[in-house]
Amino acid sequence: HFLSAYGIDYDRMAQMALHDQEQAEIADSIQAQQMAMLQQQIDSTLESLDSYIEMLYEDNVQEKVKGTYMILQLARNADNLETLIQDERLFSRLVGTLKESAKQSLDLSINIMYIFLCFSSFSEFHQMIVEHEVGSLTFKVLDYELKRFVAFQKELDSVKSADAETAKKEAKKTKLKIQLQDKLIHAALYFLLNLAEDISIEKKMRKKGIVGMMVQLIEKRSSEVALAALTFLKKLSIFKENKEEMKAAGIVEKSAKFFESSADALVLVTMRLFLNLSFDADMRQEMIQQNIVPKLVDALRKEPFRLVVLRLLYHLSTDDRCKSTFSYTEAPPMVRTVSSDILSLALKACMP
User: Chain centroid to CA 110: how far?
Assistant: First the structure.
């Protein structure tokens, strides 16, 4: 999924073609790196776990990358996790390697973060994760990557003054780093989301600034990162204090653009986030100002969106300041038609 293009819209076909070519070259570069590592997958066995851990003590970063990649192949098989967790050195060394070498190699950070993600998928391993303070370390990694992203953006701006060939080459390198960074952030977000199943851990995350961090991550990032961040925000928006923080950060304005996404999953999670936020009168008004009602009405044509759209439209219609907006849309007839269809299906389901 991380190889997909960003889909930036240019005015001229020539510019679009150039952009597509650059994205394809970047994707090919990432794929080549991944395929080189995949050649080693066949050698990844539990019997060799000790040698993989030993690689993490090497000074050579590439040896550490290789070792973590081998461990990741084992961790992707859920049947291996119990055996892996019993090795007393493994978790400690992974945490130590991430602390020591995260800034040296994105590949290394990605491998380790995906290993932790595999463990976090099962709640019985959460205690081990908490004991090794992997959650706090992940926050530090995300904070560093957010700062590094600003540096990447400056790199892209600076190369514009170079000659065309140099600018193209350097921009390609920087875009490759951004795509790799997005893969790391994607894994880190879902890792934290898994840990946040425990409300007490989620509250600790809030104190560390998780809300502001998620709002930052929906801007200028890949659709995969945006989807993960919006999913997290939807979960956090259940609590009033989080909702207030989102309001202060301008969440409605910053996320309304996703209603126009071609990715249904991204649109749907945005709708569900807005449904949670729509219990707040001020944010309902912001939604109206972002002109989402016509987009919601249009979304009624897609069956997967209908229930959440109907509920969101209902919330918006309860506000007197919003009611006039519905007069300029097809909302009344569309809602009647869709509601009738849903009622008919419900009645058929109840019939013997």
Answer: 14
